[in-house]
C-alpha cells in the first residue's frame, strides 16, 4: 500500500531532523577530539593511533568517550548515506550515549566526582529527543534515560560505606532537576508545534477541498472563474492569445435516469479524468486549466492558444472521450459516452472575460444542435 506524500511541513521537519542529528553527532565528535587533544597523555595516544593504550592501561578510564566518538562518526556517515533513516540512526547515538552515561556515572560516583561533561551532554540532548521523535516518544525516551540514570546512581551509592559528600549530592540533584525541567519544557514546546502543524495541515486540506470539485477532482466553478479572470488579465496585458473550451457530456440525463446518480457521478469523474489525461498527453498539463462549470458542463482554459490551435486540442479531447474506457461502472450493458465542445478565442475588442465564456457557450449549443459529439 502506497504511503501518502508528505506535506511541505512534514518535509521541512524531516530536513530539520536530519540537520539536528548531523549537528549532534558532529558536536560530540568535535568535543571528544578537542578534549582529548588538550590532555597530553590522550593527545599522544590519539595522534599515535595507540588504541591499545586508549582502551587499556592508565587511559582506559577515557575509553567510553572514544567509543562515543566512534559512534558519533558512524552516525554522521550513515545519516549522510541514508537520510530517510534519521530516527533509526539517531537511536544508535542515543543508546551509545546512554551506555557511556552508565559507565561514567558509576565510575565518577565511586570516585566521588561529578561527570559534568556527561551531564551537560545529556541535558543538551533532551530537547533533541522531542524534535526527532515527537512529544510522546520523546517523553518516553527521556523518562527511560532519566530512570536508568537514577537507578544506576542508587544502585552504585547504596553499598558505599558512607553517604555522598554534600557537594556531590547537590551536584547530582541539580543535574536531575535541570534534566526534568528541560524535558518538560521541550515536551510542552513540541506539543505546541505538533498541534499547530495539525491545524495547518487541516486548514490546507480544507482550502484544497474548497478549490476542488469533490465529484470530479477538477477545479470547482468558483476557482475556474478566478482562473479565467486571471488568465484574461494576463493575456490581455501581454498581448497573448487565450481560448476557452466549453464541453458538455451528451445525453447525460439518460445516464442518471437509467443507471442512477451514483453511476452518473462515476461517469462525471471518469469524464473529468479523461479530459485531464488527454490535456497532459498533449503537453498542456501545466498551462491548461479544467473546471466543472455545473452539472455535466466543464470549462477548459487554453492560454497562448489561437482558435485554430484550440480547435485541434478540442478535437483531440472529443476523440479521447469516445475512446475512454468507463471501467468499473456497475451497469448491465455498456454504453458510450461522447461530448460536445464549443470554443472561442479572446477578441481584441472584448472587454470582459464573461464575453469569452458566453461565445464559447453559444458554440457549444451549436454543436449540440448539429447532432452532438462535435466541436464548434
Structure commentary:
Strand 2 and strand 3 (297-303) form a beta hairpin. The chain has 376 residues and is of the alpha+beta class. Helix 4 packs antiparallel against helix 5 (86-110) and helix 6 crosses helix 7 (166-211). 68% of the residues lie in helices and 7% in strands. The two termini are 45 Å apart. The chain crosses the membrane at residues 20-38, 66-83, 90-109, 115-133, 140-160, 172-193. GO terms for molecular function: diguanylate cyclase activity. Residues 240-376 form the GGDEF domain. This is Diguanylate cyclase (GGDEF) domain-containing protein.
Write the layout of secondary structure elements.
Elements: H1 8-37, H2 40-47, H3 51-55, H4 63-81, H5 86-110, H6 116-157, H7 166-211, H8 221-238, E1 242-249, H9 252-259, H10 261-281, E2 289-294, E3 297-303, H11 307-323, E4 339-345, H12 353-369
Antiparallel strand pairs: 1-3, 1-4, 2-3
Helix pairs in contact: 1-4, 1-5, 1-6, 4-5, 5-6, 6-7, 9-10, 10-11
Amino acid at each position: 500500500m502506497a504511503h501518502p506524500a508528505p506535506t511541505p511541513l512534514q518535509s521541512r521537519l524531516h530536513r530539520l531532523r536530519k540537520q539536528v542529528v548531523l549537528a549532534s553527532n558532529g558536536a560530540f565528535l568535535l568535543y571528544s577530539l578537542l578534549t582529548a587533544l588538550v590532555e597530553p597523555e590522550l593527545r599522544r595516544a590519539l595522534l599515535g593511533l595507540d588504541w591499545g593504550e586508549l582502551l587499556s592501561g592508565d587511559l582506559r578510564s577515557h575509553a567510553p568517550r572514544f567509543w562515543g566518538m566512534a559512534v558519533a562518526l558512524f552516525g554522521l556517515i550513515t545519516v549522510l548515506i541514508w537520510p530517510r533513516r534519521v530516527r533509526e540512526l539517531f537511536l544508535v547515538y542515543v543508546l551509545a550515549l546512554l551506555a557511556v552515561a552508565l559507565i561514567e556515572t558509576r565510575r565518577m560516583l565511586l570516585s566521588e566526582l561529578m561527570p559534568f561533561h556527561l551531564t551537560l551532554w545529556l541535558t543538551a540532548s533532551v530537547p533533541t529527543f522531542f524534535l526527532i521523535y515527537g512529544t510522546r516518544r520523546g517523553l518516553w525516551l527521556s523518562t527511560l534515560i532519566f530512570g536508568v540514570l537514577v537507578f544506576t546512581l542508587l544502585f552504585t551509592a547504596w553499598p558505599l560505606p558512607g553517604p555522598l559528600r554534600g557537594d556531590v549530592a547537590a551536584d547530582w540533584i541539580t543535574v536531575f532537576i535541570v534534566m526534568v525541567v528541560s524535558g518538560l519544557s521541550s515536551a510542552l514546546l513540541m506539543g505546541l508545534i505538533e498541534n499547530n502543524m495539525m491545524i495547518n495541515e487541516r486548514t490546507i486540506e480544507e482550502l484544497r477541498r474548497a478549490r476542488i470539485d469533490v465529484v470530479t477532482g477538477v477545479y470547482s466553478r468558483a476557482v475556474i472563474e478566478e482562473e479565467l479572470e486571471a488568465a484574461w488579465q494576463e493575456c490581455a496585458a501581454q498581448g497573448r492569445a487565450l481560448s476557452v473550451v466549453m464541453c458538455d457530456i451528451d445525453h447525460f440525463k439518460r445516464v442518471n435516469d437509467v443507471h442512477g446518480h451514483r453511476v452518473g457521478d462515476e461517469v462525471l469523474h471518469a469524464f473529468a479524468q479523461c479530459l485531464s489525461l488527454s490535456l497532459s498527453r498533449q503537453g498542456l498539463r501545466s498551462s491548461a486549466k479544467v473546471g466543472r462549470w455545473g452539472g455535466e458542463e466543464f470549462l477548459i482554459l487554453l492560454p497562448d492558444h489561437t482558435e485554430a490551435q484550440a480547435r485541434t486540442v478540442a478535437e483531440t479531447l472529443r476523440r479521447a472521450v469516445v475512446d475512454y474506457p468507463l471501467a468499473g461502472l456497475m451497469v448491465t450493458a455498456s454504453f458510450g459516452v461522447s461530448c460536445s465542445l464549443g470554443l472561442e478565442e479572446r477578441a481584441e475588442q472584448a472587454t470582459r472575460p464573461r464575453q469569452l465564456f458566453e461565445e464559447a457557450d453559444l458554440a457549444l449549443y451549436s454543436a449540440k444542435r448539429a447532432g452532438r459529439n462535435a466541436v464548434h
